[in-house]
Specification:
329 residues, Beta-carbonic Anhydrase, Chain A
């Protein structure tokens, strides 16, 4: 507590007093650019992650970045969502999961939580669609790979839940709202965004309109530290990629970490209504693997091979059965 109190004093001295004009403006009202729904995990800081200042993002945080379906509970998530889009006029929503998520670890062993942490058990039941999807479609994974798949699928499940809210459904219909699925890889300080056309998590700038791309976004962020080349996620990814290359079933989608300009040139939201979720349409040949990214030159600072977060493609019938509110409109 002493550290927190000292932090308050430092904030007033070092930040508040040097941004008086900003706080005078904020006292008149807030106009955030986006709503970010993320985990309450202390290692995840959405403002720090996006370099956002006071008043720039509206944030909902809870265990597992979960959005209960409309009407399932009278918790604060629904009220905050409604306020964000109706009162604040927010038109961009991000659901952000993260690596090493404790809530998703708990979801994978849900029955063990009921006696010791009954409230956590009840809360995680709002991610039952994720648990069932993983149980039925990811039996070939275990350990870190299984956790990564759960984290990635849960973000998509929560977007499906989000779409059950009337205010969200209406604005998606008239294309005045966009929803994005992000994963924060804390091992490497990277953020990946789900692309429904590629069925993969890709660099987030690849989803920007061409007019919004500038020279800064088309190059890798400068690396000023020694980033681990072998995080748990990337180690699992290499094993997954190797397995997918040697198997002919092709039943898994892998994130394609396109390097530099490659990711942006093939980008776009790739979804109806600007939505970051697959509508469930399937190709004639079923699923296929996204090709691995080309290796970057050795002097680029750090390898960006990040073919992690496998994504099983579901049929429309499976989505209707598993997801709540999964209709495209």
């Amino acid at each position: 507590m002493k550290k927190l109190i000292k932090g308050i004093r430092e904030f007033k001295k070092s930040f508040y007093c040097t941004h008086l004009d900003l706080y005078e403006e904020l006292a008149q009202g807030q106009h955030p650019r986006a709503l970010i729904v993320c985990c309450a995990d202390s290692r995840v800081g959405p403002e720090l992650l996006t370099n956002a200042g006071p008043g720039e993002i509206f944030v909902i945080r809870n265990a597992g970045n979960i959005i209960p379906p409309y009407g399932a509970t009278n918790g604060g998530e629904g009220a905050s969502i409604e306020y964000a889009v109706e009162a604040l006029g927010i038109r961009d929503i991000v659901i952000c999961g993260h690596s090493h998520c404790g809530a998703m670890k708990g979801l994978l062993k849900l029955n063990t939580l009921e006696e010791k942490m009954p409230l956590v058990y009840t809360w995680l039941k709002h991610a039952e669609a994720t648990r069932l999807l993983i149980k039925e479609n990811y039996t070939h994974l275990e350990g870190e790979e299984l956790l990564n798949a759960t984290i990635a699928e849960n973000v998509l499940t929560q977007i499906e839940n989000l779409k059950t809210y009337p205010s969200i459904h209406s604005k998606l219909y008239d294309s005045t709202l966009k929803i994005y699925a992000w994963i924060y890889d804390m091992d490497r300080g990277e953020v990946w965004a789900y692309d429904a056309e590629k069925h993969a998590y890709i660099p987030p700038h690849a989803q920007l309109p061409q007019d919004d791309l500038d020279a800064d976004l088309l190059t890798d962020a400068p690396i000023t530290c020694d980033i681990p080349l072998d995080s748990a996620a990337t180690a699992a990814s290499r094993q997954s990629t190797s397995q997918s290359a040697s198997q002919s079933t092709g039943n898994t989608w892998y994130a394609n970490s396109a390097s530099s300009g490659g990711g942006s040139s093939g980008g776009g939201t790739g979804t109806a209504n600007g939505n970051g979720v697959s509508t469930g349409s399937s190709s004639a040949n079923g699923v296929k693997s996204v090709p691995a990214a080309a290796a970057e030159p050795a002097d680029s600072g750090v390898s960006r091979e990040a073919q992690w977060f496998p994504r099983t493609r579901l049929s429309p019938e499976q989505q209707d059965r598993i997801y709540r509110g999964s209709g495209s409109r």
